[in-house]
Structure formats: structure tokens, C-alpha cells
């Protein structure tokens, strides 16, 4: 698994694609949070990072599928997946090696945003104490959200040897998991109890809960369970591809 992990990291940063993906993520965050007036932290009137954690999931919808779309698609396209399957590696090791490498890249893209915490403190008109607990919880939630999106991206890449198809499937699936259940719960047909359970089935419900600064074990279990289940689907997809 470690060999696959290193290979993925080296491959990602050996091309301009990796750097462009991270730079675009940071650039989009910077423009939205400090330049565009509708979402600017400077025009919010109070010192917090709430806009970051509201906007980052939407940016992740495009960034993470761009990172993961070649994970397995390129292996199919070049024929190296068959070679990997003959190595002394289990299917889980192959999947997890790809997953952890992609998740590390997502984490690397997230780390520079810590600068915003200090920037808000320095730019405040009066000395303020930011809600460190809430911000920490929001960052944990964003990391867990990134883990689910990364798992979805790996699964989508395992379905096709076309990276563009993998990207589109990942974007659509991430959007449905994040916003779909919440939107369905607002339909009148589900009012009266079912709407709450529909919200609980979606990512947004649990992400919003953690973003308040309260780390509920139920939310953490949800993120870990869904990530594990999607990675299991990736393993099954790989096996079927090779057996065919």
C-alpha cells in the first residue's frame, strides 16, 4: 500500500495538474472571501470564518473529483491495473493506497487556509477572540467531508477508463450526497417525520452539525461509515473490472 501511496503522490506532483488544482482552490477561496463583496469576510461586520466553511464544500465538489478522476481510470487506460492485480497486494491495499494519497493532497490544499484565521484577527477593527472551538470543529468537519468526497471520487474513477467520465460522475454523486437528501426533505410529501430522517441520510446535515463546534460521535461515525462503504464499492468495482 505504501508503494502505491508514494507513486500516486509523485505522479500528482510530477505534472502541472496537481499544482493547478491546489492553486485554483486557494485562488477561488481568496477571491470569494476577500474580494467579491457578496461573500467577503471584510464586509461581514463580524469576525469569523463561517463563509469559508459554507463555500469550501461547493469548491470541493469540483476540486476533489479533479484530484481523483485519474486514480483508476489511467490504470485501466494504460493497462497497468492488470499488472497491479498480479502484485502481492490485496484489493484493499490498492484502494486504500489511492485513497490516502488523494486525501493527503486534499489536506495539503486545506492547510494554507489556516492563514485566514490569523488574517481575520489582524484585520479586525478591535482585538477579538475568535471562536477557536467552532473553527476547529468546522475544520474537522471539512476534513471528514473531504474524505467522503475523495472516496466517491475513487469509486467513480474505478467505473471507467475515461477520466472525464469519472470526473462528471464524481461531481454529480458528491452533489447528490451533499445537497440531494436535504432538498428532498423539503418536499411536502415527506413532512411529518420522514423529512428529518432524509436530512440525516445526507452529508450536509452532519457537516453542519460538526461545523457548530460540537463533535458528536454520531456525526463522526456517519462520516467514517459512509467513507468505508464507498471504498468497499470501489473494491468491488475493481474486482469486477479485472475479472471481466
UniProtKB/TrEMBL annotation:
Topology relative to the membrane: Multi-pass membrane protein
InterPro entries recorded: ABC-2_transporter_component (IPR051449), Motility-assoc_ABC_perm_GldF (IPR019860)
Keywords: Cell membrane, Membrane, Transmembrane, Transmembrane helix
Pfam families: ABC2_membrane_2
Residue ranges of the TM segments: 12-35, 55-73, 94-119, 139-156, 163-181, 220-238
Annotated coiled-coil segments of the chain: none
Cell location: Cell membrane
Chief place where the protein resides: membrane
Protein name from the UniProt record: Gliding motility-associated ABC transporter permease subunit GldF
Organism: Chitinophaga defluvii
